[in-house]
Amino acid sequence: MARITKGILGGFSGKVGTIVGANWRGKDIIRSIPTPSNRPPSEKQMLQQMKFKLVVSFLRPLGAIQKKYFGLNSGSKSRINLAVSYTINEAVPEGLEIPNVDFPELKVKPKFNGNIAEIDWKTSTDPNDYLRRYGYVYDALNRLSAGFYQKNNNPSAKEYFEKMDYDANGNITQLKRSAASEQGVSALIDNLTYAYEGNRLKTVTDSSTDYRGYPDTSGSIIGYDDNGNMTDQKDKGILNITYNYLNLPDYILFNKFLSTRTGQLRENTQYLYRADGIKLRKTYKYAPSNPLGTETSLYIKTTEYLDGFQYETGTGKKELIFGLKFVPTPEGYYNFENNKYIYNYTDHLGNIRLSYFKNDTGVEVLEENNYYPFGMKHEGYNTLSGNPNYNYKYNGKELQTESGMYDYGARMYMPELGRWGVVDPLAETSRRWSPFAYAFNNPIRFIDPDGRQAEDKIKIFNNGNIERTKDNNPYDTITNEDESKSIQIARTNVTESNPTGDSQIGNINTIPLEVPGMDGELGGTQFTSFQIQNYAVATQVFEFASLNTNVEFRQEQFSFSDGGSTNMITTNGMKNLVLGVGDIFGKDYTFSAGHNIGNSTKIEMSHSHPDANPFWPSGFNNQGKDSNPTFTPGLPWYDRKSATATNNYVFSKYLHNLNGGGYIKYNTQGATYTKTKK
Hints:
Blueprint: E1 2-10, E2 22-24, E3 27-30, H1 43-52, E4 55-56, E5 67-70, E6 80-88, E7 118-121, E8 132-138, E9 144-151, E10 162-166, E11 172-180, E12 186-197, E13 200-206, E14 238-243, E15 249-260, E16 263-273, E17 279-286, E18 299-306, E19 309-315, E20 323-329, E21 332-335, E22 340-346, E23 352-358, E24 363-368, E25 398-400, E26 405-407, E27 412-414, E28 419-420, E29 457-460, E30 466-468, E31 475-479, E32 486-490, E33 509-515, E34 524-532, H2 535-547, E35 554-560, E36 565-571, H3 581-585, E37 590-592, E38 595-596, E39 600-609, E40 620-622, E41 631-633, H4 638-641, E42 647-652, H5 653-659, E43 663-666, E44 671-675
Parallel strand pairs: 29-31, 39-42
Antiparallel strand pairs: 1-6, 2-3, 4-5, 5-6, 7-8, 8-9, 9-10, 10-11, 11-12, 12-13, 14-15, 15-16, 16-17, 17-18, 18-19, 19-20, 20-21, 21-22, 22-23, 23-24, 25-26, 26-27, 27-28, 29-30, 31-32, 33-34, 34-36, 35-36, 35-39, 37-38, 40-41, 42-43, 43-44
């Protein structure tokens, strides 16, 4: 089992390093990429760097980005190198199987079903900082039973753990949580018992008498409206919550107040949304300190949300500077107050773990965030103040500092309880789960992108690598690398006994395959293929992969004498070459019983061209304008020479984005721009 380690390494000398392959039990786990260790970045790479001014990826990854270099000055000591290194699990000391002797039945063991067993991390905020680790335990339903925190100097210290029990509906019934005390020993900060009416949480009682986790021990009754929305949470000082027609909170009243001659003015938050539920404004009215009794009104802080740009205005507190605060960037955000690019380091769930920037001497960490499994932030050691105006943390969502909830878009999440306060708007698609449960109670593997339903994804990276894990939905979600675009493919045979159905996307198979580079482009190191029976689905997946990566993909349709047919999608991660299953495995490659390449007819072969030049099939000359190109035969190069299918197409990303259709049909004699398949 391979282990992935990420880290910020500091200065960058401007040289590209070599990726070393590994052999484990006779198998090549990581293929080496032949890159001279002292080769400077190419002119093309440096031009790309100057164009975007944020990040350049010099080496293609194996499953994720291998290296990133931030900053503008090649050779500068202030350059930031973010590296991903790969090692073999047996070469890294394993964690304790029983990290907490109070729970000897909860053992941390390797998982082979997509669940994560351990996560390690270490940061440079303290030169003598510990190697830290979480080990995870799951029940028979793949729900997280416990997350046990360890550090290398005391792996059984019992700090920062969470342990959960559930009812049959997936509602948490008990939660234990610990932290470190000032004396350096662990302290139980939460020993929560949840009481329900149906799936609605009615009370939470805490027998720990420690207020650092859940802030109250009294167990006040929680109210709900007719739609199942939580209307108060007095344990946390929330007296009332009202909702709009989309079940989004538009007003929250708190118990904190300002005393005046005319009475008490209570703190409150108001939200304004677009008609489709996108948040436009948050207005927080809060009580100032009033030692002389001279303040007669609440201070106001207004946050405006404009397509990622975040503004603040307000009244009262004079030391606050109001105006444009920040705008998000691909790798973090730009801080307009300090005129700095701030880079965010995120984990596999999108949790923002570090925020950092480059100063005159190197890397300076602005903020560090480490989280309990269900999202509460660790307190007691990651104490950097960070940027008080940037509150995007767990899952990359905005923390509402007034209420302690995270805004996911469709719902607000309560990390101290590990559940939502509002019914899932898509509850009918997850009938086996409580509509208030977060991420199928497996927050280490699943995320909930917008509060409507947890997702497990088939992610297609820019370099063509594909990452897939099992999910619990009646459809497959396919995303691009940064998850900004996605499609959903319905599953078949969904029944009462098979509620998640059968995926139409076959097993994704990847094998090591060294292919030399051509025409100045990098070669390939692996070959990926998967089968899709339905032609329309195969075309949809092929086009999505072609439009959202920087490498070529191929779709082939094979027919058989019994009237059946099937489709294969392949890539070998190169910008100017893609191979098919027949090229690699030969005529004996078997699709299903009695069906192989040898007894099939290839009725279609489509492959993508990711670049604008050439967007047409090789072996032809482009004679027309890009809006309506025409082609004449040229030298018999690869595409023209290998047009062996009944129908052959190039799918051009450039033409598709320009004209709304990217298909060019060709054979050995000619080529025609058809926009769509014909």
